[in-house]
Amino acid sequence: MRLAAVLTSLLVIGLAGESHAQAAPAPPAEHPTVELSPELDRVLRDYESAWRRGDAAGVAALFAEDGFVLQGGRAPIRGRAAIQTAYAGQAGGPLRLRALAAATADTAGYIIGAYGYGDAPGDQGKFTLTLRRGPDGRWLIFSDMDNSSRPPRPPGAAPPP
């Protein structure tokens, strides 16, 4: 009798936990934008500008010669020429970038940020840029990793409009 009561209690607790785990999480609050130094802000504004023009060569020129692009679901892309080739079919559209955090020290730095497109409210994804200061003092992107903030689509589901 005692065993049955314990098992029943565990079942109720387990079901309550399962029900709680399946509840849709509340959307996270949007992180505030941080102000960047002019030299780091230039990296984001030049990226936006080249992307909006569909200028894959212009985007690639923002990278270190041996830089990386790390996109979800794809193999790493390394080197300016490969980055230009990869972005040739992707660049274009009203990209919006904003910084959430950033730091630099000597010849290395980073920008953590969020992105969206056009006037659509909120962020559609997030990114990290690791930076390397070039011999001329200009900050170049060593790696760019981004991913969507949207939940993954179930297998076979149509893409969002």
Describe the fold and architecture:
It is a single chain. A 6-stranded mixed β-sheet has the order 2-1-6-5-4-3, with helices on one face. The chain is built from 4 helices and 6 strands; from the N terminus they run αααββαββββ. The radius of gyration is 22 Å and the shape is globular. With 161 residues, it is of the alpha+beta class. Mean pLDDT is 82; it is low at 1-21.
Number of strands: 6
Q: Report the span from N to C terminus.
A: 57 Å
Query: How would you spell out the order of helices and strands?
Result: HHHEEHEEEE
**Overall average residue pLDDT:** 82
- What topology, given as strand order, has the largest sheet? 2-1-6-5-4-3
Radius of gyration: 22 Å
Largest sheet: 6 strands, mixed
Shape: globular
Structural class by secondary-structure content = alpha+beta
Count every helix, treating DSSP H or I runs of 4 or more residues as helices.
4
Assign a percent range to the helix content: 25-40%
Strand content: 25-35%
Low-confidence stretches: 1-21
Would you kindly provide a brief summary of this structure?
31% of the residues lie in helices and 32% in strands. It has helices spanning 2-22, 38-53, 56-60, 80-87, and strands spanning 63-71, 77-78, 95-105, 108-117, 125-133, 139-148.
Give keywords.
single chain; 161 residues; alpha+beta; six-stranded mixed sheet; 4 helices; 6 strands; 31% helix; disordered N terminus
